[in-house]
Amino acid sequence: MRTAYVAVYETLADWEIGHLAVELRTGRFTGTPWTVVTVGESLEPVVTMGGMRIVPDVTIADVSVEAGDLLVLAGSAEWDAGGGVAFAELAGRFLAAGVPVAAICGATAGLARAGLLDDRKHTSAAKEYLQATTGYQGSDNYVDERAVVDGDLITAGPDSPVQFARAVLDRLQLADEKKLEAYEGVFHRADPASYGVLVG
User: Fold this and answer.
1) Average pLDDT of the chain?
2) Gene3D superfamilies of this UniProt entry (predicted)?
3) CB 157 within 8 A of CB 126
4) Looking at the chain, which runs of residues are DSSP E strands?
5) CB neighbours of 190 closer than 8 A, spacing ≥ 6?
6) Which residues are tagged catalytic?
7) Would you state the pLDDT for residue 200?
8) Domains of the chain (ranges plus CATH)?
9) How far apart, in Å, are the Cα atoms of 162 and each of 19, 114, 132, 180?
């Protein structure tokens, strides 16, 4: 079974990765369930922005890039405060090894600070949001879309959790375009006609 490492930290933005985590873990629309492993800087519990208490399964030190198939990074107040350095470094290791990294909202700022967006197409909350990040030199590669995939990097803004999930599932080749379009139809556009395609 393939493994997705999901980084967890204080004030993690629950809603940003909820769709993706569910689809990976259950495989309910893809037919391919994954193992989802939560990763903390320590094994101490963290509390998400929505008040959910999460006890990490492993620490960053325990993560084997070779054993992973995806790293997921959600937004949080910590990224905006300049934190998350250890997770950005982990993302760099995954990308260097050719393993996909999916970052949404504030996590994109952390990757920007680490220089990981400078040479890759990406998106975020807004270009200006990243331009306020110290060291960001990737403005020319910013794409104003809901979600952007460039090789092993998938990025999205905070208003696009469904498009984020769709983009990751597409990058991982877990569903074809017809099913992915139906997925967005159901969960973003509330289109009842898409449901039959999604579950068919």
Assistant:
1) 97
2) 3.40.50.880
3) yes
4) 3-7, 35-40, 46-47, 53-54, 58-59, 70-73, 101-104, 147-150, 153-156
5) none
6) 105
7) 86
8) 3-175 (3.40.50.880)
9) 6, 26, 26, 10
